[in-house]
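Q: Make up one entry.
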Amino acid sequence: MRSRYTAYAVGEADHVFRTWHPAARPDVIELDPAIEWLGLDVVDVAGDDTEGVVEFAAHWRSGEGVTRQSGAIRERSTFVRRAGRWFYRDGFVSES
């Protein structure tokens, strides 16, 4: 989870793609360069050695001056372990 957040923050779409479960990932990953990622709060973690759930809030801002916006993406994500590596499978997102 933390490596995926960092990849979004520094614009590494390839890492986001490679850590998405092959059965669920989109064909193309497009990151929005206008979004500045400000921090990650891991709210809850559950699971075992083969499947886990991570609930988090990823804080962001975008724009300048009077057009500046900010918020947090809140998600409960499911990860599965395959060949010794964790892959993002899916998640329920809510924005605030």
In short: The CA atoms of residues 38 and 59 lie 5 Å apart. Residues 2-10 form the longest helix (9 residues). The chain has a mean pLDDT of 94. Helices lie at 2-10, 13-18.
